[in-house]
What does this fold into?
Amino acid sequence: MARQWDEELLSAIRIDLPRPPVHARNLFHFAVAMWDAWAAYDPSARGYLTTEKHASANPDADRAETISYAAYRVLAERYALSVNAATSLASFATRMRALGYDPSVTTVAGDTPAAIGNRIAQAVITYGLGDGSNETNNYRDPTYTPVNDPLIVAVPGTTMDDPNRWQPLALSHQVSQNGIPIPGNVQAFVCPQWGSVLSFAANLDLLLPGPPPRLHDPLDDVAFKQAAVDVIRASSELTPDDGVTIDISPAAFGNNPLGTNDGGGYPSNPITGRPYAPDVVMRGDFWRVIAEFWADGPSSETPPGHWNVLANAVSDNPHTEKRIGGSGPLVDDLEWDVKLYFALNGAVHDAAVGCWGTKRIYDSSRPISMIRYMGGLGQSSDPTGPSYDPDGLPLVPGLIEVITSTSSTPGQRHAALAAYVGEIALFAWPGAPTDPTTDHSGARWIRAKEWVPYQKDTFVTPAFPGYTSGHSTFSRAAAEVLARFTDSPYFPGGLGEFVAPKNHFLKFELGPSEDVRLQWATYFDAADQAGQSRIWGGIHILADDFGGRVMGSTIGQNAYDKARTYWDGTAAR
It folds into this structure.
């Protein structure tokens, strides 16, 4: 029963605007409703918002009905604000009727399962109206104003009052990654108030990381410039045409110490005792596949929902033994699911609070602004060379160069840029091809002023600051819960997989050029890859990724520990 309603919620997320904090909150509050409904029929478990207890001659049937009314009421209230509200609300009501329940029953009086479920839902709804999210005004926050004027993506270059601060983008028209048109052509910070939303187990003051690297900072100036170089280098590798192959199996990839990419894989699968088989693919295919697999769209549940999908797959795996935390008795599917959703979605909710609170405090720039701004100024490596500016991009032969009269003569590497002698050129992904269904762009020399990330040209970069990465924070928090809940960091059987079929997976351009099988030994490997994907996607720097992973680790562990106190009834009253 819990799974059916989780799938309803995931379907509603996929056709709503991709606002990760909003959906993380909805996932958690929905999980609270189901948990409180389940706990109402258990003598020792403690509900989160409602603590009433009820005897039942048929607890399985009564739990199912109570859960359904609680879930239905919460989802119907929350997705009444969706851009596709009519579709989602009709689906919720259809689900109720298919289960044999009447969605028009709204009573909150008495001890019937419907009344109990409706009371629980009302408690959740009331709680949400006072949690700091500003749900009443569709989660708007008019108190934030960007310090930089918008970057007009179609016009080369950019100007910034403060290159360390976030710059909204101006697009000819905005379309979310799941294809929903967004009114206006200038981005507005999505949910800047989220650091003040009531959390489950997180404390932003204790979680807040130090600042990201900043231009002009004596300690961080070099790191800021290097961060841009790292993203440009990643952009240059988004092509299968260079012939470079890599082994992406757990034998070579993953097992990173927290907050690093320093792992070298695993000597063997600890479940089977056998070495992991090599999985050699084109490097450019791999980077493009992970950039799109972990993206917020199209048809995406956003990162918090994506981890519900992964968790459901783990639950369905025949190798999964359903003992909470790896010990105690085997539990049925319903108990497993309501407890998993409660802990998992408590973690991703808190990840939104911590991550978006950090975004608001540091208000950091995105790679497109960093690269275009510094590239427009010149190069910072050679004070005696052409186009020098101390705030320019570092020169890297074959990657970041000054266009000269010699380098741009016919037949030379910058020949297509001969009109821009003196400017900075990058070897990078040049933007989507004219027809992304039949062609891919590869990598070539382009003007730094025109660099774009590996994204659709109606989206380009999410509408909020960079530091820290939501993908990294959500994913690590979720991975911590899954590892603790299953009592193993490893996917069932020691291997999680996803296959991206040749020329039938990528949406930004044609590809991959061959089947690509993503593989992860552990939940942490999958979480790390989610963060890494945003570097190759061109919308985060490494500091965003690593800072999010570290924060997410603490958030996930704290959420799991707190959830356990509700399962065993020891939560503070």
User: Anything to note?
Assistant: DSSP finds 14 helices and eleven strands in the chain. The first helix runs from residue 2 to 14. The mean pLDDT is 96. The radius of gyration is 25 Å.
